[in-house]
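Forum: Protein Structure Q&A
Topic: Joint prediction for protein chains with partners

I've read a bunch of threads here and the consensus seems to be that you should model interacting components together rather than docking separate models afterwards. I'd like to see that in practice. Below is the full input, 991 residues plus whatever partners are listed. Could one of the regulars post the assembled result?
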Amino acid sequence: MTELLRKTAAELGRLIGSREVSAVEVAQAHLDRIAEVEPKVNAFLHVDPDVTLAQARAVDDRIGAGERLGPLAGVPVAHKDVFTTTDMPTTAGSKILEGWRPPYDATVTGRLREAGLVILGKTNLDEFAMGSSTENSAYGPTRNPWDLSRIPGGSSGGSSASVAAYEAPLSTGTDTGGSIRQPAAVTGIVGMKPTYGGSSRYGLIAFASSLDTPGPFARNVLDAALLHEAFSGHDVMDSTSIHAEVPPVVEAARQADIAGLRVGVVKEFGGEGYQPGVLARFHEAVELLESLGAKVVEVSCPSFGYALPAYYLIAPSECSSNLARFDAMRYGLRIGDDGTRSAEEVMALTRAAGFGPEVKRRIMLGTYALSSGYYDAYYGQAQKVRTLISRDFDAAFHQVDVLVSPTTPTTAFPIGERADDPMAMYLADLCTIPTNLAGNAAISVPCGLADEDGLPVGLQIMAPVLGDDRCYRVGAAVERALEDRWGGPLLAKAPAL
Amino acid sequence: MPYDEALERFEPVLGLETHVELGTASKMFCGCPTEFGAPPNTQVCPVCLALPGSLPVANAEAIESTIRIGLALNCTIAEWCRFARKNYFYPDMPKNYQISQYDEPLCTDGYLDVVVDGRTVRVEIERVHLEEDTGKSTHVGGATGRIHGADYSIVDYNRAGIPLVEIVTKPIAGADRLAPDVARAYVTELRELMRALGVSDVRMEEGSLRCDVNVSLMPRGSSEWGTRSETKNVNSLRSVERAVRGEIERQAAILADGGRIIQETRHFHEDTGRTTSGRSKEEAQDYRYFPEPDLLPMAPDRDWVASLKAALPELPSVRRARLQAEWGVSDLDMAAMHNADAIGLVEATVAAGAPAADARKWWMGELARRANEAGKPLAELSITPADVARVTELVASGALNDKLARQVLEGVLAGEGGPDDVVAKRGLQIVSDEGELLAIIDKVLADNADAADKVRSGKVAAVGALVGGVMKASRGKADAGRARELILEKLGVS
Ligand SMILES: [Zn+2]
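Posted by a regular:
Agreed with the consensus. Here's the joint model:
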């Protein structure tokens, strides 16, 4: 593996900016790596070296012409295949959108394109971002670079695996119930869910509109912050986008100073159902925070226990409506249009053939929950729980600056283990979902390997709405201390592919 | 059942749901233009085509227009409200849900007074809310022109996403046999209100104002409302009236036979004035409304709402009362002008210098007749209020008489130019050369010796025939009054 692949995105950006290496060389190195390991990992749904290299050449030309670009200009990025891209297909991991070429860029992809990042390809995901393992992709599962028999997390599993496998230095993901933090945790990398509305959803194929949040993956906290900053900020195309400055995430990642910080340990997360190795690494991380000068207290968030059921009413309800547009009329798959069938029949045949079982399960769940006579009992109640969870966060952040918990109850589980047990699968997002319901910010950073299986464990750091910088500050402090202890990044311990 | 008989046995209860397409420059949730009549599917973008990943952004002008409509209808403006998704599958609705409002409309509890048969009827408004229009489907082949049975269908998404305001009345009871007229008067008044507010061009024939008519009947003496039918897309004022009348007759016949009215959607047929059954509510959709998560709630600032209210234009009913007083016309004449959509034209003609009585005479007389012949509204005649004012001026100055004036109007309508152009081109000046007139009179007296004798013998009434002869001989160009004087003078009667 060439040294270029091990460099941080910040370093690559600096080298390309100073013309010590070209964007084309960096892109080529990653394309070669993709060609080498993709047969094992299956992180990408679409790679197009010609398009990637043309973009890299254009960036080299812009830099050569003296144009001042951002710190990540020329650095490659892999996009989760729910963000629209004008030069690559966008499928959302579904057969129903196979081969669809969007006529417009998502705000996230467009802004990164403008900042000079080079698109390596589109990464695999659970169909329409519904899942925690990437097994729900219509295009086959992605494998965890730490252990190819295990899941890379989900739904953004292609994005986490590509970064963990050194196929990409950076990638984008979306987090609806933990779909960035959980994959980051189980692949030993950094994944951030920004404050809802801090990053634009325009061009992000919707799963659950009130929860979906674009965010970054990287192999270290500073790189994640640089990517975060590059695509975030107010967007007139997204009404739910916040009118506020992007929190100073890069500065916070560089500071990494937590002396005097008040840290709350969420009492409700831990105990039964949690893997001992996960809890052991988590407790060590809490001790580490204390040793770095943080003041640690236990905080109770009693409503968090209702988060999972509330989430599984709200997210399916919204998805049942969001996915109604896939009707074979204007784009995507069309089944049975032989001149004898009605539009209604073609819609039904297409949706039956085009959606996978998990997507259908959630559409039916959501359709039921919104039905007249059930709305108040299901969707209405779930919204009340949402309010209670926000209040718990508010009360907690009155006492402490950040909250911490394990990112996931367990390490990466074997592919197939939970495929037929949706409830077990849903538990993977137990610790991450409250943040989605409340709309605040949270990051997952590696905190070691579980003793039982030698697989990565993630530490989740939660901050208030628009307190994204706190996640990076604490994450960077933990990262620095742990890497000193480990003698390098956790990922260096991963087996060679 | 004949209408009169139906009304003897039953009392109708009405409800009207009116959709008004707002005349905003761009669509409700995207930047696409809203012009009517563009080639199909040319005014579309990722948002109004519901491409994956696209998101709506609410049109502030449309929200403002809706609030102004609500204020003009004396509604309460919500302090906080939301859009909601109305979920149902239909090919002309790109998202397969419509962004609308459900239990939190922008405006509630208002009223609109209408005058029918000299009586003021207060129509109470339940709600006014904002939503988006669907695309337009054309079903090709098949007998009904509807999707079932069609060979194929084509969809134009230009209309998809145009802002639509829905105005819903509370049940209107007590209109009795005037129910069809009340319905028509309400839609007419609403249309004028929209025009006065400048929020829509309200062209029913282009579908920018569409009406759903709900009718139910209760037996005389009962106070329990019957089951209602909902007649969709009644698209002219006359059709509104006919649809109500037709439904009253149809339902009365069923009820009188001991039948039961089904709660259903019905389609109105312009040709027969009858309705036919659509889908019944029993098989109706569950729209699974829920708050639209892609849009923020609306919380119209109270000061802003107050300023919108203060800046409302003079409302049509107030304006009519003012003009009636200014012009000194009767209720009946005013109502006639209102029904003929002539008030604005008369007002503009008066503003151009004509006396109100003359302006009304021409618009409600000759021009109304011409419009009727041409089968188009008065406003679409190719003549301006300024033209009409000029004609009244020419008559007042004696340059034209009524008969010549009618010819001038005919010329203007035929596109021969303004009144002065027509007078010049057609040579329509009154004959004011007395010598020429006297020569004509001599000839007429010679040709009509009997009549001349009668006048000489004191039967002055017979002079009319002689004047008529002069007018005929001069091809209408003579001044009839002067001719009469001269004839009497010649015959020694004066
Ligand atoms: Zn559009």
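Chain B has three domains: 3-308, 316-426, 434-490.
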